[in-house]
Write a structure and sequence with these properties.
With 576 residues, this protein is of the alpha/beta class. Helices cover 43% and strands 20% of the residues. The strands form 7 sheets. Strands 10, 13, 15, 16, 17, 21, 22 and 23 form an 8-stranded mixed β-sheet that branches. A 6-stranded parallel β-sheet has the order 8-6-5-4-1-9. Helix 2 packs across helix 11, helix 12 runs parallel beside helix 13 and helix 21 crosses helix 22. The longest helix has 28 residues. It starts with a helix and ends in an 8-residue tail after the last strand.
Length: 576
């Protein structure tokens, strides 16, 4: 007993010691940062650019990630301030693998393009450079590559995995009910190849995004469209000297030589220190601590939409609390809802939409789309006074589906049978062994159809179009932001900053502060959030296999994501 008590006491002491250390660590991070003269703002590998505070997963289970996370809005603000800051003489882009979404890269690239109007330099350096990193770096005045490096410039592709034969082989039945011929989230369970409708929408979507991306790279590198296409098709970027020959890079030099070149540009002596300041430190140097006065609130909605009260993703119970707080805060004069979501639960999306509609009755509500605003993500935008989309935003996917797996054949092959005793005619309309009854299929079909009609109804109200108009461009189809503007699914092409400015204008604000919601978790809150997880092992697995892979695993194993009508987009697009 004495040994057990000693162990318990030791664990408690260690836990509180750990909390104190985290607290001191947090305090040390709050020290003021002074920007030195002749500084170079540096975008490097140690910064993850995120869309929402909820994407910052620095938990006690994520000890391997040494990167710092910074909001895209703060990044753009930093570049804008650096343009007029006499202490900042230029920007150095030193990124091989950029952890940021495509619309975030678009906005940062545009901000750097505007920065160049100041006459200050923008240089870029790479080793083994990913396509997304090169897309950002190509905006530089000059691009330098390591002599043994390479640029993975290859265009966009998508690979769809199908499970129909796998399910049949192992006796897994999957009942699928959907509305929309383009609602391809369920295709992997129904077919062994891409349907003509899905191939059409994927081809259009990929080409829209790549044409927009490729044209910007070609202009920056002073290449015509045909020449650039040839370079990409031939994978010339992967061979260093061929990269230079074909204008993808300006010169092959070592990193030390690159730094020395910048020192020469700044007229520094050989022994003088090159003052580089990271994005995060530069943001800390000017962050306005005074948040008094009138405000425009940016409410970030990032991730899948679910029922529940978790901090990460978009969980209806917690988001309803956020919305009501914004509604009741008299200092907040307008709200911008920043959506970066492929959708999720139809029920949770409907709850959130209702509360946003109530918010709109009291103050202006403007919506800004990030990488994704599809299905449920598009649905909750229907309360907006105005919708801004990025050109490369995956938009729309107005469609609904339900997936009900069952294991009758698998069970029977292994000698498992079942029989049912019930009190009512349809008490067992669905079971994991026998699937849906014929009447259950009928009811679920009506549920899906009813949800689709409700979806289209809210779209017709917001977009001021007929049911037939929306149904013709709906059907689960995903559009690029550019085409979404053309067909009337959004009002304007623009950034989050554009949406904030319009919201302030609509609220008749001449001077205002911008506040972000939800607030980023403190170190203490993060610890207790981690310890309160239903399954702590899930956090460890997520850290090990990565967020994207974990989301696939979650769709298979998480009970709360099953047996409900879904408004969800089937895929993601990344410029890797």
């Amino acid at each position: 007993m004495a040994n057990i008590v000693a162990i318990v006491v030791l664990c408690v002491v260690f836990f509180f010691f750990f909390i104190i250390m985290v607290a001191f660590g947090s305090m040390s991070n709050e020290k003021s940062v002074n920007v030195k003269k002749n500084s170079v703002l540096t975008i490097n590998l140690k910064t993850d650019i995120i869309d929402s505070p909820t994407e910052d997963q620095q938990s006690i289970f994520n000890v391997n990630n040494k990167n710092t996370s910074v909001l895209i809005y703060d990044v753009l603000d930093a570049v804008r301030k650096a343009k007029d800051d006499d202490k900042i003489k230029g920007i150095s882009i030193e990124v091989d693998n950029l952890n940021a979404g495509i619309t975030q890269i678009d906005d940062l690239r545009a901000a750097i393009q505007d920065f160049k109007k100041s006459g200050k330099f923008v240089y870029a350096y790479g080793n083994m450079v990913s396509q997304s990193s090169y897309y950002l770096g190509s905006v530089a005045d000059e691009y330098y590559l390591n002599p043994s490096g390479g640029i993975e410039l290859k265009g966009l592709s998508t690979e769809v995995t199908f499970f129909k034969d796998f399910a049949e082989k192992y006796g897994i039945g999957i009942e699928v009910i959907r509305h929309g011929k383009f609602k391809s989230a369920v295709e992997p369970f129904l077919r062994n190849d891409i349907s003509p409708e899905n191939k059409e929408q994927l081809s259009t979507l990929l080409n829209d995004i790549w044409d927009n991306t490729a044209s910007k790279i070609a202009v920056s590198r002073k290449m015509n469209v045909n020449q650039f296409k040839m370079v990409v098709d031939s994978l010339y970027g992967m061979i260093p000297d061929v990269s230079v020959k074909n204008k993808l890079a300006d010169k092959l030099i070592q990193k030390t030589e690159y730094d020395q070149m910048i020192k020469t540009k700044l007229k520094l002596k050989q022994d003088d220190k090159l003052n580089k300041i990271s994005l995060t430190k530069y943001i800390d140097s000017f962050t306005d601590k005074d948040k008094s006065g009138e405000k425009v609130a940016v409410l970030y909605a990032s991730g899948s939409i679910n029922n529940g009260d978790a901090y990460s993703d978009i969980n209806s119970e917690r988001y309803i609390k956020y919305i009501k707080e914004l509604q009741d805060d008299d200092k907040i004069k307008a709200v911008v809802l920043r959506i970066n979501s492929p959708g999720g639960s139809a029920n949770a999306s409907d709850e959130i939409l209702f509360e946003l509609q109530q918010l709109k009755k009291k103050k202006p509500l403007v919506v800004s789309f990030g990488d994704y605003a599809a299905s449920g993500g598009y649905y909750i935008a229907m309360a907006a006074d105005k919708i801004y989309s990025e050109p490369n935003t995956l938009t729309g996917s107005i469609g609904v589906f339900g997936v009900m797996p069952y294991f009758k054949d698998l069970a029977n092959r292994n000698g498992v049978r079942s029989d049912i005793v019930a009190t009512n005619a349809n008490a067992a309309y669905y079971s994991s062994l026998n699937g849906l009854t014929p009447y259950g299929v009928n009811i679920m079909t009506k549920s899906v159809e009813g949800t689709y009609k409700r979806f289209v109804h809210f779209v017709t109200q917001n977009r001021k179009k007929t049911f037939e108009d929306i149904d013709a461009i709906g059907g689960g189809r995903v559009w690029s932001g550019t085409r979404a503007k053309q067909i009337g699914l959004v009002d304007e092409l623009g950034s989050l900053e554009d949406a904030v400015k319009f919201a302030a204008q609509k609220a008749n604000l001449k001077s205002y502060n911008v506040s972000s919601y939800p607030k980023k978790m403190t170190a203490f809150e993060q610890i207790f959030e981690d310890l309160n997880e239903d399954d702590i092992s899930a956090r460890v697995i997520k850290n090990k296999i990565g967020k994207s892979n974990y989301e696939i695993l979650e769709q298979i194993t998480d009970k709360k994501l099953k047996s409900e009508v879904k408004m969800e987009m089937p895929y993601q697009i990344k410029i890797n």
